[in-house]
Amino acid sequence: MLRVLSLTIIWMVILLGPASAYMASIGKEDVNVRSAPSLKAKVLFKIPFGYPVEVMQTKDSWVEIKDYEDDTGWVYQPLINRKVQTVLVLPDQVNIRQGPGLNYKVVDQVNHGSIYKFFEKKGQWVKIGFYLENKEIGWVRSDLVWGE
Q1: How many CB atoms lie within 10 A of CB 77?
Q2: CA distance 148 to 100
Q3: SS3 (DSSP) at 12
Q4: What does DSSP assign to residue 3?
Q5: How many CB atoms lie within 10 A of CB 129?
Q6: How far is CA 26 from CA 10, 14, 33, 62, 138, in A?
Q7: 42 and 68 belong to one structural domain
Q8: Do the Cβ atoms of 144 and 125 come closer than 8 Å?
Q9: Rounded to 10 degrees, what is the CA torsion of 30, 36, 39, 40?
Q10: Which residues contact 103 (CB under 8 A, 6 or more apart)?
Q11: Separation between Cα atoms, residue 144 and residue 95, nearest integer Å
């Protein structure tokens, strides 16, 4: 019995692999994304404050991140904000609505590249708002943003 339990645990660890990825946001302005987890590594690109990223893995004090275009690189972990989740608007002229559905009034429009705080999800809709003011604006379809 103990042998079966041990083998089951080993197989679960193998199948599940490393810890799951999670969403976070960039906590400082113009953060360097590097080719390796080191200050000596080449800077691949810079990423702005509030930008949503998927954290793929952790190594020492560094995290490997992925953006909405599947670009990857390494960021110094203290520059990542795990407490505030943000979303990136993908197309231009996305309607923000008063509620989670097409039958709600349009209150504003936003464009590609805009970053907003993520508040909640209902079905295929996400509530977004201003990042710094912590103020809700309205709802957008979840397939029109990345990061939730």
Answers
A1: 16
A2: 15
A3: helix
A4: H
A5: 15
A6: 35, 31, 11, 13, 23
A7: yes
A8: no
A9: -120
A10: none
A11: 10
In terms of residues, how long is the chain? 148
Amino acid making up residue 16: L
How many Å apart are CA 108 and CA 140, to the nearest integer?
10
Q: How far apart are CA 102 and CA 81, in angstroms?
A: 32
Q: What is the mean pLDDT of the chain?
A: 89
66-111 pLDDT, tens digit per residue, is: 999 999 999 999 999 999 999 999 999 999 999 999 999 999 999 9
Q: Are residues 60 and 99 in the same domain?
A: no
Q: What is the pLDDT of residue 133?
A: 84
**Residue whose tokens read 């645990």:** 9
Helix (H, G, I), strand (E, B) or coil at 33: strand
Q: Are residues 99 and 61 in the same domain?
A: no
Is residue 114 assigned to a domain?
yes
CB contact set of 125 (below 8 Å; sequence gap of 6+): 100, 101, 139, 140, 141, 142
- Please tell me whether the overall predicted TM-score, pTM, comes out greater than 0.70 for this model: yes
Task: Please give the single-letter amino acid code of residue 5.
Answer: L
Total domain count for the chain?
2
Do the beta carbons of residue 80 and residue 27 sit within 8 Å? yes
H or E, element range at 86: strand 86-89
